[in-house]
Amino acid sequence: MARVDDLTPVLAALADPTRRDIVTRLAAGDATAGELAAPYAITPQAVSKHLKVLEDAGLVSRRREAQRRPVHLEVDRLDLMTMWIERQRRTALLRAAEQAAAEQAAADEAAAEEEAEESAAHDPAGPPLRGGADRVFQPWDLGARRVDPTQ
Q1: d(CA 72, CA 146)
Q2: In terms of C-beta distances under 8 Å and separation of at least 24 residues, what long-range contacts does 81-88 make, across chains too?
């Protein structure tokens, strides 16, 4: 599992729009610092400083090919960041789904209670008996008056 500390330099390096653009361009293929500097209105030294930040974050590497020193994008570092972001996204989606289900259950329960109250208010027989409809009448229900069963 990736530690957040592993991600800090990657996220910090990608905070700059010029560095993000360099990463985008390197995704299409390796390029030298001079080739990367061409579209910008900054010096090749400034691009080299951006490349150094990307290199320190582990996002790019350089190798020597005769006189050329092409810069290569290290996709594994992007994968590290992508996995972390995806884990956070899935956790948030799961939490949102759980919350929506709980809200739906509460709404269903409230609707059922409202329906029960509405049906009791419109029932011509009146409210339900406290003892229930299947309650058996008992002699003590008459209170102090006793009825002689032989009469």
Answers
A1: 102
A2: 81/7, 81/10, 81/11, 81/14, 83/2, 84/2, 84/4, 84/7
Q: Which of 85, 58, 56 is nearest to 74 (CA)?
A: 58
Please state, in angstroms and rounded to a whole number, the distance separating the CA atoms of residues 141 and 91.
60
Give the model's pLDDT for residue 138: 63
Q: DSSP for 17-54, please give it.
A: HHHHHHHHHHHT--B-HHHHHTTSSS-HHHHHHHHHHH
The answer to whether the beta carbons of residues 43 and 37 sit under 8 Å apart is yes
H-type alpha helices, the chain: 4-13, 17-27, 33-37, 44-56, 75-121
Given a contact cutoff of 8 angstroms between Cβ atoms, the answer to whether 60 and 73 are in contact is yes
pLDDT over 60 at 78, yes or no: yes
Decide if 38 contacts 25 (C-beta within 8 A).
Answer: no
Q: What are phi and psi of 38, to 5 degrees?
A: -50, -45
Whole-prediction pTM value?
A: 0.63
